[in-house]
Amino acid sequence: MLDISVIIPVYNAAEFLEKSVTSALPFEEVKEIILIEDKSSDSSLEICKKLEEKYPKVKLFQHPDKENHGAAASRNLGIEKSCGSLITFLDADDYYLPNRFDAERKLFNDPGIDGVFGAIGIEYLTEKGKREFQSKFNDSSLTTVNYPAAGKDVFKGLLGLTPKTFGTFFHLNALTIRKTVLDQYRLRFNEFLRVHQDSDFIIKLSYHCYLKSGIIDKAVAVRGIHDNNRITKIVKYSPQYNQRQQLFWNSLYEWSKKTKLPPDASRHIYLQKKSFDLSLKKGFLKNISLLIAILKNPYILKTRYRFTYMHS
């Protein structure tokens, strides 16, 4: 039987937290639900304490200084505190569906598989949240990939290096990973990234580990969309958007310099980073820097965000 630790970072999630926790409780495979409370300003801490008292599976932790450190640091603390052989994640405003571990029960019989990922659905909790989400991501009912994949094809697909469009990403809520491989490759979330730390983690994970798609045609978890979803607050190609993308791609670039990636992957990561470096420059300096970059490597004009420099 699977032995799973569910890690839930908690910050100002009082309205949603109990539903999130209770969605993970019924699974016999779930041995513990780890709540990392990150100095919320609402009643989340009190709810965490009540859930820990009520349910033996629930374990509550805070950062040693009891200060706010962000989702990446909270997930990292959860990994350190976990006892299960398998790690899963769940955001405090989301919940699992009854089929959450159907694929895992079969696929993890193969010791060569390090991780399994699936699809998540969305639930609109507020009208404002719905409008903001649909303006950024259209009205897609599933966050998923376009076709089954495993191994290096997942890594290539996430970087857009496959002949067919794989899909931009899969969500942490639908990922299950062996804890041993996280420790073996020292894989943790980049705590300097306030957003996109999940995408950064998943791309690095997909290179080092053998991931396999599970249920990708229907949801195994649900993401709650409401007024305070951070990712929908950022206007695409705004200075804030470009800066956060630059931090994300720079994180991957620094990692790539220490990792023996295929040449096409290294080049792609570098050019994406360079594209956003350019987007943060201004005026005449931007134009000169862009011209120099094109002369050095014309492929920069083929990056996914090749026009970002025009919008800042």
UniProtKB/TrEMBL annotation:
Task: Spell out the protein name for this chain.
Answer: Glycosyltransferase family 2 protein
GO terms for MF: hexosyltransferase activity
Taxonomically, the superkingdom here is: Bacteria
Q: Supply the alphabetized keyword list.
A: Transferase
Keyword Transferase included in the entry's annotation: yes
- Tell me, what's a Pfam family for it? Glycos_transf_2
Residues annotated as domain Glycosyltransferase 2-like: 5-129
